[in-house]
Amino acid sequence: MKLLSVVIPCYNSENYMKKCVDSLLEGGEDVEIIIVNDGSGDKTAEIADEYAARYPSIIKAVHQKNGGHGAAVNTGIRNASGLYFKVVDSDDWVKREAYFRVLDTLRNLAGGDCALDLLICNFVYEKEGEKRKKVMQYRHIFPKEKMFHWEDCHHFLKGHYILMHSVIFRTRLLKECGISLPEHTFYVDNIYVFEPLPYVKNIYYLDVNFYRYYIGREGQSVNEQTMIARIDQQIKVNKLMIDYLVNKKQEIMKNKRLYQYMCNYLEIVTTVSSVLLIRSDTKENLVKKKELWQYLKSKDRRLFLRLRHGIMGNAMNLPGRGGRKISVGGYKICQKLYKFN
Fold it and tell me: In Å, how far from its chain's centre is CA 119?
């Protein structure tokens, strides 16, 4: 059995996927790399097959009809045979020295008395045109380099959140929790790092800058104008997260730190949805913003009040055009204060 399975969702990735795959090949035979060609129209399939032929004991090439990022991750989970599971997007890569530390840590913990459910590492924003790289690290939240539980975490501030780039889950946990990401939907990475959390008992934080998250490619899904154009998909993901937290609230609330974190993360996602709807500056999208907050209220009034009257909820719901300008300004301040992208 492999130590780590890594899925690389690929859609028309011929121009940059080789850097990603080559960085992951540094892990050698301990790693299983699953390249999922999600209905690409360029040479992605050909490149994937070439890699699989050259490294048959490490790389699998899986081809499927286009189903979006979520469908590719689902395929990766189904095909994974490693003890642990990681998603690396095709325009990103991993740092060699940190990679070795990650594999050593997984190897050492795999034979322990308690199963490790979640390994968390730092990631680095590789933003086009910026020399200074922003590191997302968790030194003030998690105990370093030891197994711990949710109750051992320090207080989660608004800007403390875990992205797909930060996490390596135990593969069996992902399969047992039944996660299935929506197809033909962007921003499902928020669901991926949200739904498995109630099943996570044992956590380990390795303080290394492992994942390099590239930002700046034209047409990238996190580009603001692209996000506004796809706002209905952002709202869909937002509502699915609301549903999940509400439906499992009684169970999650048994762990105070976990519930606090999941509420904070939902607040960030709802704030992003709201500010994009405001910045689009159309009557239709302002109605959608109001409807989103009403949806939350209809699902759980107490959760609604918690988010609505927090600093970000208040900032997103100021009345009138002047209020909306203040909302956007407040959002930019929140970005600086809480360091979210």
Answer: 14
